Amino acid sequence: MTTQLPVAVLGAGPAGLAAAAHLTERGVPFVVFESGESVGASVQQWGHVRLFSPWRYNIDRAAQRLLTDDGWRPPEPATYPTGTDLVERYLMPLARLATIAPHVRLGHRVIGVTRQGVDKLRDDHRGHRPFIVTTEGPAGITRTPVRAVMDATGTWLSPNPIGAEGIPAVGEEYAARWIHYGIPDVLGVDRARYAGKRVAVVGAGHSAKHVVRDLSLLAEDVIDTTITWIVRRGGADNVFGDQADARLPERGKLGADAHRLVASGRVQLETGFRIERAVIGESGLELLSADGGKAGPFDEIVAATGFRPDFGFLREIRLDLDPWVESTRALAPLIDPNVHSCGSVPPHGAAELAHPEQGFYAIGAKSYGRAPNLLLATGYEQARSVVAELAGDHEAAGRVELVLPASGSACGVKNEPATQIAEFELATSACCG
Ligand SMILES: Cc1cc2nc3c(=O)[nH]c(=O)nc-3n(C[C@H](O)[C@H](O)[C@H](O)COP(=O)(O)OP(=O)(O)OC[C@H]3O[C@@H](n4cnc5c(N)ncnc54)[C@H](O)[C@@H]3O)c2cc1C
User: Fold this and answer.
1) Which residues line ligand 1 (CB under 6 A)?
2) CA 251 → CA 164, 254, 394, 428, distances in Å?
3) Rounded to two decimals, what is the model's pTM?
4) Mean pLDDT calculated for residue range 216-243
């Protein structure tokens, strides 16, 4: 019987482990497959970055109950963790709980999700057939039958290219050793790679501003370090954001710092530069734009150009995706970054996350497709709702436990005082870049 099989949770990041906590509380058998050698493997890759939301919004409620029962001492709720703090003080203790640890398979990369015995084209009672999760791990290839799948694999491992049109720029793949995708720790473990180098940062969001700011601190120490900041959009006004937003001082500060660095000449800003080619020359890597522009040569490129979901291992699953956001169609209008900041995305759950493939859900960053504005708190609410649905508690699945104020510009947790809602808005707004 399919119903006696476990639920598979793919990925042991914040959303996947929140799902594990809710499944534990409801007594639903589960197995978590994580490709990394530790839980929170993707968060570890930006472990040096401080979150913009304080601890009180970064811990799932079911996880907190289980941890508290186990004698865990919660971090100070008003303080802001780094990514490493999030992993070491929250995700690792959670994954070590006796009720969760035996069900977590580290070093198991999911390479396929299918319906047993049929491909995507065949109906043949597929809704009654188990899913098969195929993983690659220490013991080779393993096939695990499960009754439902919660895909919480995030998007961090699928960065966008530097090519302006969404595919790699001509030559980008050959230039791989010059390019780091993500947010390097330029003041820490990656310092030697960037010190005294000619560095280009590509991207307009908060991740790019973060790297530009860190590189400028490095350049104060190592004067030969030069920083060029390349953005696709035209006009510096769009790049710095609203630096004077009193409600969002952290975001404003990042934009203001970037503005100051550009105005002082310490960072050279190239706006409206749409990268078409990466050319390896004798003195470094040059970037060429479609309209004849040239930047460089550079020794290093930091691609802070965002992320996209990997659907490769879901090729045989019947998905209903929005054509451009790549979330479910029901979710897309709620999260479209052309319309929403992360502070104004309405809460949602199993109903909005359902695909035609009964029993398959994506939660967390993966559920948002290409939209960059997921909050941990939203991912936790998704996990709660989907687990309730899988447990047959349709009323709880449909209930909204994360309330976003009607103003549309702030978000908070049900019954939070206005000050905390404002703080949450402040804290979370800057993750959207
Ligand atoms: C720099 C940065 C700062 C952020 N700051 C905030 C903030 O302040 N507040 C906030 O609310 N949100 C913030 N976010 C947004 C969001 O909350 C985080 O991205 C969060 O990590 C998403 O959690 P997740 O569990 O969905 O995905 P992830 O954390 O990406 O976890 C996915 C997990 O799945 C694993 N995995 C991937 N592929 C496979 C596979 N094929 N098989 C098995 N396992 C796999 C990965 O190794 C990883 O452990 C931030 C995001 C970034 C990038």
Assistant:
1) 10-16, 33-36, 40-43, 46, 49, 51-53, 109-110, 152-154, 156-157, 183, 207, 313, 364-365, 374-376, 379, 428, 431
2) 25, 5, 38, 9
3) 0.92
4) 85
